[in-house]
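User: Can you predict the 3D structure for this chain?
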Amino acid sequence: MTRTFQILGILFLLISIQSCSGQSGKKQGEELKAKVDAVMDPYHKPTSKSGLYAEAKIDGEKWAADWMFVDPDPDRTVEVNAHRGDKEVIVFDFGKKTAKEKGTKTFSKITTAQMFDKNGNILMSTDGECQVTNVTDEWIEGNFHFTFKDDGSGTTHQVTDGFFRVAMPKKWKNG
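Assistant: Here is the predicted structure, written as structure tokens:
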């Protein structure tokens, strides 16, 4: 995942330098978005009940991801990056050891899960966990729950009854 972000960072820098040639801010933004979307599209995967999937209840209301961002070649961790529409996102990760042992990862202020709410606010987990419950050659499945806090307003959001399914990384299959 680090390699992907390094490549994206370099791409953003190059695009920013190239696009500072006197264009209007709106046009620059549109061009930058189009270029970033072109790079990100291969990682943008739709969800289905029998494939890549994530769902939960947020403050008691059912939530299901429309699509997930998938790193095709993670080294040590798999990131569950589940999106509903353009704004709502739940993100957390777990390591290879957790998957192999069907273990649990506990989240805290140091090892956080994140959520972007309907208004685009980023919320950090104050507590919670994900547990890997099933591992096959194709999929890693598990459940999760978190408490997210909006530091600005002080409100909390409960994410409960979470379920995820992500693809087994090829690197992990081969050792």
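Residues 47-173 form one domain. DSSP finds four helices and eleven strands in the chain.
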